[in-house]
């Protein structure tokens, strides 16, 4: 028996899904940081976003709402480029991690980032906007109802406003399961994670067809799409030297917006624009 049942309780609670079926990342900040951002796949993701966001968005120093901002990398990226950012995140652990990190980043203009601990579903109350630019990266796949979330994001956007949306690609998850030899799993399409313990397999992976449909339902037009990590996950041998890593990055950049390659990116990155006139 545990000598400290209270900590076990609070830990198992923090790993539970919310009533809405969402997975807040309480208790996961360290693991998420270690297994993603301190690893080559996280480095590649950030390098690709650094390359793609200026290409895919019209950036004019506008205010940014970063939804489910996690450890705060995206908020910092925009703040360093002169945007005022409202970073929102329901997990106190993640938000504190981001705040502490931002405090140490010398290049961040003071006061450029404000923080709000709240889930996406309550943003119409706490940060109604309307916003000229919203980012929501790698969040929808952690929600019980990603379709409703896209509708909520659309409601927060100003007419003509842009949404930078990144989602975990269900089609790529099937492909990578097959490559790893999980053929039964791929065949039966049992791809989603359950959000148990510290597992980082998303509970609601999303397909391009769904984004097309949900976007159209909510007056959002797809302006641009790209695949993030189109090749990296399928390499038989990871790059062994910094030069090989550079070559991989160049390859990813070259094909991330080309059909058919973008379709198998581990993540799909979209720019969606809200129509100027009501539906
Ligand atoms: C995979 S992380 C992505 C973090 C960050 N956007 C990034 O790209 O690194 C998913 C984040 O979504 C947050 N999240 C979960 N449910 C949410 C909700 N209902 N509203 C907003 N964020 C949510 C989690 O707490 C977690 O920080």
From TrEMBL:
Its EC number is 2.1.1.-. Gene3D superfamilies: Vaccinia Virus protein VP39. Transmembrane segments: none annotated. The keyword Methyltransferase applies. It catalyses: 5-carboxymethoxyuridine(34) in tRNA + S-adenosyl-L-methionine = 5-methoxycarbonylmethoxyuridine(34) in tRNA + S-adenosyl-L-homocysteine. One of its GO terms (molecular function) is methyltransferase activity. Keywords: Methyltransferase, S-adenosyl-L-methionine, Transferase, tRNA processing. S-adenosyl-L-methionine binds at residues 45, 68-69, 89, 137. GO terms for biological process: methylation. CDD domains: AdoMet_MTases. Belongs to the class I-like SAM-binding methyltransferase superfamily. CmoM family. Catalyzes the methylation of 5-carboxymethoxyuridine (cmo5U) to form 5-methoxycarbonylmethoxyuridine (mcmo5U) at position 34 in tRNAs. This is tRNA 5-carboxymethoxyuridine methyltransferase.
């Amino acid at each position: 028996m545990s000598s400290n049942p209270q900590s076990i309780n609070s830990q198992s609670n923090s790993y539970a899904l919310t009533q809405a079926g969402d997975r807040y990342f309480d208790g996961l900040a360290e693991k998420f940081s270690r297994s993603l951002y301190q690893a080559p796949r996280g480095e590649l993701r950030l390098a690709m976003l650094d390359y793609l966001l200026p290409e895919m968005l019209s950036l004019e120093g506008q205010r940014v709402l970063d939804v489910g901002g996690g450890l705060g990398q995206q908020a910092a990226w925009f703040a360093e480029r002169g945007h005022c950012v409202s970073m929102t995140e329901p997990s106190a652990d993640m938000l504190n991690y981001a705040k502490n990190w931002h405090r140490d980043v010398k290049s961040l203009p003071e006061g450029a980032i404000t923080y709000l601990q709240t889930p996406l579903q309550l943003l119409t109350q706490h940060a109604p906007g309307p916003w000229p630019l919203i980012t929501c990266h790698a969040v929808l796949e952690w929600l019980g109802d990603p379709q409703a979330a896209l509708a909520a994001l659309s409601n927060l956007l100003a007419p003509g406003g842009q949404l930078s949306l990144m989602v975990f690609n269900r089609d790529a998850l099937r492909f990578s399961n097959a490559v790893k030899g999980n053929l039964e799993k791929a065949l039966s399409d049992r791809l989603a994670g359950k959000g148990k313990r510290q597992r980082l397999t998303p509970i609601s992976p999303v397909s391009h067809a769904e984004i097309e449909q949900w976007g159209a339902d909510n007056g959002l037009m797809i302006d641009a799409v790209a695949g993030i990590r189109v090749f990296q996950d399928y390499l038989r041998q990871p790059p062994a030297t910094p030069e090989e890593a550079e070559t991989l990055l160049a390859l990813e950049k070259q094909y991330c917006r080309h059909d058919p390659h973008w379709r198998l990116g581990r993540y799909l990155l979209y720019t969606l624009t809200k129509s100027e006139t009501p539906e």
